[in-house]
Design brief:
Elements: H1 8-20, E1 23-28, H2 32-42, E2 48-51, E3 67-68, H3 72-76, H4 80-97, E4 102-111, H5 116-133, E5 145-148, H6 149-155, E6 166-175, H7 177-190, E7 194-196, E8 199-207, E9 210-218, E10 224-234, H8 240-244, E11 256-267, E12 276-280, E13 285-291, E14 294-298, E15 302-303, H9 315-326, E16 340-349, E17 363-366, E18 372-377, H10 383-398, H11 418-423, H12 425-432, H13 436-446, H14 450-459, E19 466-467, E20 470-474, H15 475-483, H16 490-497, H17 500-503, H18 509-523, H19 527-547, H20 553-560
Parallel strand pairs: 1-2, 1-10, 2-7, 4-12, 10-18
Antiparallel strand pairs: 3-6, 4-6, 5-6, 8-9, 9-10, 11-14, 11-15, 11-16, 12-13, 13-14, 17-18, 19-20
Helix pairs in contact: 2-7, 2-10, 12-13, 14-15, 15-18, 18-19, 19-20
């Protein structure tokens, strides 16, 4: 079985293939939409390349609220089509495409006014559930339920009793966004796509007005090469404007507004609750989301026109989230309780609006010049629809008959047999001589590909030990990140293949040295390279912590820029 293993060797092979033959489709940008487009095109029988300037999901697609949801607030905007579409995708992901990565999570919606608010909010959530029932993939989550104040406080003991008169419990779903995107990339690779991270597009190749490929640069070695393709899909998210600027003499078709959203991560014991929670604020909504042994709290929604590669959270951002969540909590959180912080940028299609919170999340697909398709906007949950629409547009440029999209029926790697493996978790624990909770955690991160991780432990029992400085992870997992999941740097492992950078009090510093030494052999590092990777990661942590003490976006962004990139880009 081809499991789409991504390694240093597969990257070199992908380079050779892409440089040696004309592809049907070349996708630029390996966030969730680009990865989804590569999978969509590959499963239609097309020859596909996927290039990413940084790491897979290193931009927006690793910095979301980790939710797969329809978007309750879009109902208030009367955007029923977007909500219906997103709820259908939620059902597909839970029930068929990625049950190992996407799972239901309950949320409380606290009510502060009697009668009218329960009627108003209840009607909205009932419509939300009804729209989900209309989806062909099944709902995948329980229906909502009205709760009294006593029932609500039993479900979420940390709520201030005087802050609510009752609540409504409803369900959405959760995902580790970076791992899900990486699984999309691996699944695309398993279906024949050639994929390469840390590969920057520095120019488009043209014949007349038509785009016929790209000139690319290996960000690690500096080597340049050409990739020719019959059509190209630009899926660069908040970088859409930058990539369109490479089309000399052409005007960009889309204008993207970047909206910054930050999240804070606090230990699970700091809040007593058995569900998530959604709170209204004066600007938008705030989620309190259960995240294994932590809570994720977010998000903000502010316009950002500074460094897109490293959006920075300021002290004002962190204080805003603490102030808002503390309005509902009996025991307030403090800055000392914050264990992790991350900031991301949403790519919003520009429109006339008073704030980025009011811009539409719907996507658009266009063809600015022959041979190129641009896909922009959208939201994480509807990535598959965006990818399908982009490939549909690319197919029109090919001029040949191509099968329709089939990704609605294509489970991601690790999904087949997942539910049976979950039912057998106690047996698997006995077979592999590891605690049941370890098997559960592996299944939720890898699905049935957990067998590959456990095979590393069988070959070297020392890899079955908890990772120094991050005991929730096994040493085998960081090795697997480098040998199978395309991680090329220490940062890739600690921030995206795992979530150690936001789940440990020291932001992963204690785990850095052990991790670097474990992955050194797979990545061909000598001692000097190991020390360099550790130094770069520590500098990143120092810069991010310092940025979070700054009063505003400008000073926070300037402070974050003090940390050098692991593989600097040319443009």
């Amino acid at each position: 079985m081809n499991t789409g293993k991504i390694s240093s060797q597969s990257r070199a092979a992908a380079y050779k293939t892409m440089a040696g033959e004309e592809l049907d489709v070349l996708v630029v940008g390996a966030g969730v939409v680009g990865a989804g487009a590569a999978l969509d095109a590959a499963t239609r029988g097309l020859s596909v390349g996927l290039l990413e300037a940084r790491d897979f999901a290193s931009g927006t697609s690793s910095r979301s609220s980790k939710l797969i949801h329809g978007g309750l607030r879009y109902l208030e905007m009367l955007d029923f089509a977007l909500v219906r579409e997103a709820l259908k995708e939620r059902g597909l992901l839970i029930n068929r495409l990625a049950p190992h990565l996407v799972r239901p999570v309950p949320f409380l919606y606290p009510l502060q006014h009697r009668a009218w608010e329960r009627l108003y909010v209840g009607a909205g959530i009932a419509l939300y559930d009804t729209l989900a029932l209309a989806g062909s993939a099944g709902v995948g989550v329980p229906m909502h339920k009205h709760l009294s104040r006593t029932e609500a406080l039993r479900a979420f003991p940390s709520l201030r009793p005087e802050s609510l008169v009752g609540a409504i419990r409803y369900y959405d779903a959760q995902v580790d966004d970076a791992r899900h995107t990486m699984f999309l990339v691996r699944t695309a690779a398993a279906y024949g796509a050639q994929v390469a991270a840390r590969t920057e597009v520095i120019a488009f190749l043209r014949e007349g007005r038509r785009v016929v490929g790209v000139r690319a640069r290996d960000a690690e070695s500096g080597a340049e090469f050409e990739v020719r393709a019959r059509t190209l899909i630009n899926a660069t998210g908040v970088w859409t404007g930058d990539s369109q600027a490479l089309l000399e003499g052409e005007q960009g078709q889309f204008r993207i507004t970047a909206s910054k959203g930050i999240h804070i991560v606090v230990p699970r014991e700091k809040i007593s609750g058995h569900t998530g929670m959604i709170l209204r604020t004066s600007k938008s909504v705030l989620f309190v989301i259960p995240w294994d042994t932590h809570w994720i709290i977010g998000t903000t929604d502010t316009e950002w026109d500074l460094d897109k590669a490293h959006p920075a959270a300021s002290r004002a951002d962190v204080d805003y989230l603490l102030d808002e969540v503390n309005k509902a909590l009996a025991t307030p959180l403090t800055a000392d309780d914050v264990q992790g912080v991350y900031a991301g940028l949403r790519p919003l299609l520009s429109a006339q609006a008073d704030s980025t919170a009011k811009l539409s999340r719907e996507h658009a697909v266009g063809t600015p010049v022959p041979g190129m398709v641009v896909v922009a906007g959208g939201k994480y949950t509807t990535y598959r629809v965006m990818a399908k629409d982009a490939v549909d547009a690319a197919v029109k440029q090919l001029g040949t008959r191509v099968p329709a999209s089939c990704t609605e029926q294509v489970p991601l790697l690790g999904a087949d047999g997942y539910r049976a493996a979950w039912n057998r978790r106690s047996q698997l624990a006995r077979i592999h001589r590891v605690p049941v909770f370890r098997i559960e955690r592996l299944l939720r991160r890898y699905g049935t590909l957990a067998d590959e991780v456990l095979a590393l432990v069988e070959a070297d029992p020392a890899l079955g030990q908890p990772l120094d400085g991050a005991a929730d992870y096994l040493k085998a997992e960081v090795v697997y990140a480098a040998t199978h999941e395309g991680a090329r740097h220490l940062e890739d492992v600690l921030t995206r293949r795992t979530r150690i950078s936001i789940e440990t009090p020291d932001r992963g510093v204690a785990a850095a040295r052990t991790t670097a030494r474990l992955i050194a052999e797979a990545l061909g590092w000598d001692d000097a390279e190991v020390e360099k990777e550790i130094s770069l990661y520590e500098a990143r942590v120092v810069a991010e912590l310092a940025a979070q003490e700054q009063p505003d976006d400008e000073t926070a962004a300037a402070t974050r820029r003090d940390a050098p990139d692991v593989a600097p880009l040319a443009v």
